[in-house]
Amino acid sequence: MSEIDLDLVQNPVIKAFIREQAKFPEDFKLNICEDDEMYLFALKNVKDDRDRALVRYYAIGRRIRDTVKQVVDWHFGGFENVPSFLDFACGYGRFTRFLIQEIPPSQIWVSDIYANAVKFQTEYLGVNGIVSTGKPENYLIDRKFDCILANSFFSHMPERTFTSWLQNLYDLLTPNGILMFSVHDECLRAVGAQMPANGILFSANSESLSLDKEEYGTTYVTQKFVREIVAQVSGGKAFVHRIEKGICRFQDLYVVTNELVRDFSELKFNHHPEGYIDVAAFTNKENLYLEGWAADVNVGGRIEEVQVLANNKIVQRCEPFYDRPDVAGYFETDVALQSGWNCYLPKNTVAPQDVLTVKVINNYGWEWILETCTVESLVNQRESQSLLGSTQTKLKLIETQLAAAKIEWEQSQSKLMITETKLEEAHTKLQETQTKLISTQMQLEQTQTQLVSVQMQLEQTGNMLINVKQELEQSHNRVVAMESSKFWKLRSAWFQVRRLLGLAGE
Q1: By CB neighbour count within 10 A (0-12 exposed, 13-18 middle, 19+ buried), where does 207 fall?
Q2: What is the mean pLDDT of the chain?
Q3: Mean per-residue pLDDT for 360-382?
Q4: Spatial distance between the Cα atoms of 412 and 246, rounded to a whole number of angstroms
Q5: Phi, psi at residue 374, to the nearest 5°?
Q6: Exposed/middle/buried for 308, CB within 10 Å: 0-12, 13-18, 19+?
Q7: C-alpha dist (Å) from residue 370 to 155, 318, 360, 392, 404
Q8: Quick one: DSSP state of residue 347?
Q9: Is 296 helix (H, G, I), strand (E, B) or coil?
Q10: Which class for 447: exposed (0-12), middle (13-18), buried (19 or more C-beta within 10 A)?
Q11: Minimal CA–CA distance to 339: which of 350, 329, 327, 349?
């Protein structure tokens, strides 16, 4: 047994990643055994790019730790309150190297069928080791554990050993202990594969390079099957809770306990955000352009920000701001629709050999690293994939952007038509108002003419009244003069005599 010949301590990419993701970066155990199948599997998937394989390897270990932490915090109130922990089917320590930063190695036991894996962890990580067996009836342990994790083990067990292994692990629990194990839910099975009536489907294939695939293949189960098996092995005593896609948003995680110290409703489990960098390229002005997507599918979740770091220092921040129907389709929810983001790093902000880290953070404080690599490596990765990973991906992205542009154009056209209609209505109202104004102006002019005519008539009437008044005054003066004359006095006396003689008429 030997370790992979990599200068991990001085590797700037790995240093940057561990500084971001490890609780105690200076004490983090970096070394990886050359037989580690999880690392070799990651290396194969990234076409022998060792830096990317290492980052992926460590990132998954950290992600599993975050999952376990949420359950441990719910049940125990924190890792510091866990007296003993068993990592069953532990492999070569992808998760354990993060666990020893939470719990002292002396309180951790690891168990695997690979003796080399157990030896590597006991010698390098300082934990306790138990070599497992191929047959569950031969797995004899003389102690119990407060917390047991069987990650990605039952997702490989055929029906004949599934129940027996679950019985073994359940029997190893302390009275107040918890058992966590992951499975492939039936929804992950291949299209067209029929689920047996008993609720478990097994196929003889797996990523293992050495184990018998008839004993260690790929298993899919229903929730009903799991609950029935838990009830069987516990005699109906255990409480069981399912966290859908709790392990890396892929495998379901089941939590089993005999004493429900806290109700499962208090287990507030949240997934990590997710995302991808579609484009990384230098522009004609030598700015670094980044484009991708970031989504969070937790209930009430959202992406707080996308951070870009150069050599562990933040150099840019942004948020998703445009629609990505392809992402919403992948997650099958409109919550992930507005997930597209992009940003520029101005010229001379980063150099080709700088280590670039791009990560997304959700409103629950969980973060996920999209990439940690040199600027040169990231640009080359995307250029070798025609900037968008492949011609097909590029076409899909262009189609998505065109669809989004079409929607915006249709919305603009609709708004334009509405605006034109409103303008026409306003123009019609303006014309009506102008007509009314002209009519009113004409009426005002007519009224003004009539007022002038009336004013002239009033002036004439006034003059006539003055003349009549003058004439009346003259007539009155004449009457007064007449009444005061001798003739008028004699006339008056004459008429008086006639009235006395009875000669006066009417």
Answers
A1: middle
A2: 89
A3: 94
A4: 43
A5: -70, 155
A6: buried
A7: 27, 14, 7, 21, 25
A8: T
A9: coil
A10: exposed
A11: 327
How far apart are the C-alpha atoms of 240 and 13, rounded to whole Å? Answer: 41
Dihedral of the CA atoms 90, 91, 94, 95 (nearest 10)?
-10
On the CB side of 451, how many CA atoms lie within 13 Å of its CA?
Answer: 6
Cite the DSSP H helix spans in 199-262: 223-234
Question: For residues 172 and 148, what is the distance between their CA atoms, to the nearest angstrom?
Answer: 8
Alpha carbons 59 and 52: distance in angstroms, whole number: 10
Range with lowest mean pLDDT among 54-58, 63-67, 306-310, 502-506: 502-506
Q: Which tokens go with 180?
A: 């966590």
- List the structure tokens of 497: 């005599």
Structure tokens at 369: 């690293």
- Token reading at 348: 């001379």
User: CA 339: distance to chain centroid?
Assistant: 7
In this structure, the chain runs to a length of 506
Phi and psi torsions of 186, nearest 5° = -60, -25
Cα–Cα distance between 455 and 458 in angstroms, integer?
A: 5
Q: Could you tell me how far CA 366 lies from the centroid of its own chain?
A: 12
Structural tokens at position 407 = 């929607």
What is the rounded distance in angstroms from the CA atom of residue 253 to the CA atom of residue 149?
10
Angle, helices 12-21/50-76, rounded to nearest 10 degrees: 10
Place of tokens 């997650």: 331
DSSP designation for 452: H
> In whole angstroms, what is the distance from residue 330 CA to residue 309 CA?
28
pLDDT at 387: 42
DSSP structural state of residue 317: E
Dihedral angle over CA of 377, 378, 384, 386, nearest 10? -160
Phi and psi torsions of 112, nearest 5°: -155, 155
Total-model pTM: 0.75
